[in-house]
Each structure stands twice: as C-alpha cells, then as structure tokens.
Amino acid sequence: xxxxxxxxxxxxxxxxxxxASCSSEKIPVILIESLQHVQIRPYHKQKLVLIWSAMRxxxxxxxxxxxxxxxxxxxxxxxxxxxxxxxxNITEIRVMTPADKPFIQLIQDMEKQNFPSLEGKITLxxxxxxxxxxxxxxxxxxxxxxxxxxxxYREGRRKFNILMVGDKPVGEQWNYDKDNRQPxxxxxxxxxxxWFEADEITQVVIEHVSSLNIPTFGQLDEKLYKFSWGVTRNxxxxxLDWFIHVRLAxxxxxxxxxxxxxxxxxxxxxxPYLNIGLLHPLEVVQAAEKAYQEEQIPLNSVEGFxxxxxxxxxxxxxxxxxxxxDYSQKNYFQHTQPLxxxxxxxxxxxxxxxxxxxxxxNTGYVHHIQRLMILSNFALIAGLSPxxxxxxxxxxxxxxxxxxxxxxxxxxxxxxxxxxLGSKPYAASANYINKMSNYCQECAYNYKARIGxxxxxxxxxxxxxxxRHRQKLVTQGRMSFILNNLDKMPVEELExxxxxxxxxxxxxxxxxxxxAESQSRGE
Length: 523
Hints:
By secondary structure, the chain is of the alpha/beta class.
C-alpha cells in the first residue's frame, strides 16, 4: 500500500493534516497549478502570483525535507493526478479537507469519475488550519436561537485560554470595541507595511501570469504595481513579527479609520498568509497575547486584534460550514441591481469608492472597514445583487475564498441572510464616512447634501434604502431610532431622494461578472 498526499494551493503548511497523518517523509507528494481552475472566475493577478509562487517555494521546502515531490502545471487536476498515481503505484490519495465546500465536491466528483478503481480512494483528512473544527462549531451552535459572534468569541477565549485570568477576561471586560473607533485627526505617522522584493521563483511566476490570455483583475508590472507580498512561511513570520512589534500598539484606536495615502494604517495584513497556511491562527493570537504580557502593548489593541482572528475569522469559517446549502443565494431584501462598471475600473466621482477600488486594483487588499463601510455599505444601500457582489469580492481580493467571502458578504456586509449572522444591517450615510476618513475632503459630492446636483449617493441611497425596506427594518430592534428620523423627513425631500436613487442606475453603466458559473464554485 502506497499513500500519496495531494496538497492544495491554500494548504501550504508543513504541519497540515494530510502530511501529519503520514508517518514517513519519503512519501510521494503532488502540487498542481490548474489553468482551468483559475478560469472559474477572473482572479486578481497578484493573487495568482501569491498562490503559485508560494506553492513552488513550498514544493522546494518539501523536497529539501526528503519528500518525493511532483509539481505539475496543467490544464486540470485529474490528468496529472492520474499520471502521478500510476507512476508511484499509489493506492490511497490523502488530501486535507478543503476549507471551501465546492472544492470538497470537486474532489468527490473527481474520485467517482477518474479513480473508481483506486483501492484506497481519496481520503479527506480533517482540516487543521483553523482553531475550531466544523464539528466543534456545530456542537456550540446546536440549540441556540441566535448565533452571536460575541458569545462564540468568549467561548474561544476560554477554550484556548487567551487573555484570561482563571475564568475571567483580562481587564475585567471581554470587548474593548468602544475604544477602537477613533476618527483620524492630524498627522498619524503610521508605520510602513512590510513588503518584499520578488525573488527568482516569483519573477518567473509574474512573467507566467502576465503572459496568460485569461480574464483577470488588478494591476501587475515591474514598476508602478510591483508584487510585494511574501511567499514563504519565513516571510509570513516576518510580517507577523513586524505587526506585533511595530504596528500592534497603534492598531486598536484607529482600526476603523481611513486615510488617503495611508492605505494599510496599523493593520496586520496577515490574512493572505493565514488563508494559505503560511501562518496558523493559534500562533498569531498567542504572539499578540505575549506582546501584551511582555511589552505592555495596550489591551484595547491586543484584544481588538485577537477578536478579529479568534472571533470573526473562526466564526465565519464555522458558520460557513454550519448553514444550509442555499446560504449563498440568500437575498433578504430582494436586491437585483447589477454591479456598476466602476467596481471594476475605480472610475467614479465618489472619492471613497475611487480610493478603495484603486487600492484594491494595485494590491488586492483593503482593510476591514473599507470592505464593510465603503464597499459593502454602498452595495447594500444601492440595492446591488448580493450574488454579484459576493462574486466580485471573491474575484478581487488577494485573501478571498468561498468560506470567508460567503458569510462575510452575504451575511455581515449585505444582511442578505436576514439576520442569521448579524443583528442589524451595516448601513450608513456619508456622515459616517466623513467622520471616519478624509475621503470626503476631496470629493466631487457634498457629504452633507441628501438632494440636489451635489448630493452624495451614499446619502440618497441610504435614506431610500430605509424607505424601501421600512417593514423589514422595523423588526430589527436597533433600527427604530433612525426610522423615527425618516418619519420626520419632509415628504417633498423624501420624494426627491427616491427619484435620485431611481434615476442613478440609468446614468451609470453596469458590468457583471464574466463567468456565471462562479456563483457555485470555490477555490
């Protein structure tokens, strides 16, 4: 009996479950770059470089450790897998269970179609790149009326003994979110991000990606739009260390702030590395906890960061595998407007959207408030199709995968699940954007105006959203105050708002995702 391990492009850890399940380092291992797979949807060019370069570096590391490594660049997965199985007399293929449900289905379908006679078939080994297993999350969720992230987060703190003194939270409170919402004032002097020069392997991948004649998103060249992400575990550890010792202290207070020219602020920028296995969430939260204990890093910063990883990230993964199979098609508000063309080009007079989408084109990354309160907020109040928006997020972000984008966008960003994930819609007018950023200072629109030629679309869409969905929103307890303000609005002004919202889509060209099948496919 010969066991072989197939390693996927987002499973690049030496301790990943399929490798760990084997007793010898002499076993056959295969990694495959599938050109067919990256045409399921158009991906960001820099994401393709990140994954393929990281895969090639990881394959080299495995070879140095004694594994019998096969690396294939092919059209699909099945043909090179079959050749590898035959060449190595493999009777069982082991794969760490993919985080994305569509890829699990892809493997199961491929087993039936391509390997019906394989003695041991394909064995899925439970994924160990998360802190909670899917079974543990289901046990936590079972019988609960509301799956509130805050309660899950607290359970995670207890379970992994993070920022705890006995059974009490350090500092006598669980959540310091109220201390982490300061608007940007004056010169912030944010520390630079940790970037890297492309090595020889990465340069080859960049040339390969640039030569592909397939739909992609984003910028990539040798001068203006250089690929600067890390591609190895050692580089990912450098980014984590840089964040812990240089950025973490300032992270909490201004984590919701947005400033032109200060795109990454104090954010960690480790999500691309976590999501392909170069970092593990436990080492990340323990590093932050250690910094609090040994370096007196402010508790609000440490707790706020740990909540993102131990709370939100684990919660999104667990919920993704817990909810019904039709979750991706949820559309609570029945929104159907097409995606505006500027979501692809960044060419819009709305400075906030122009800045955020331009940054996304250049790097594949914007931080969580830009995602939630600029991109998702606009999509929600303008009534864009949740499915088009979720596919766009998956396409454009360097850290985007089915498991993280589905619940984040459908649930948190667009409230399209009707409150399974969130307690209220994250809808806001231009007033919030002006408070938490300096985007409005250089904008063609007036952030104070709700009607007129200079009215900010965030304003008239916001009030139109409240008006259109009053009956559904009134049942959300936290919306009553703002709905009372809607009731006080003059009838003439409300009618003008409705007309602006209605006419806006007649003036703005739309552009949907090129591949319709992408709605049901994962990484």
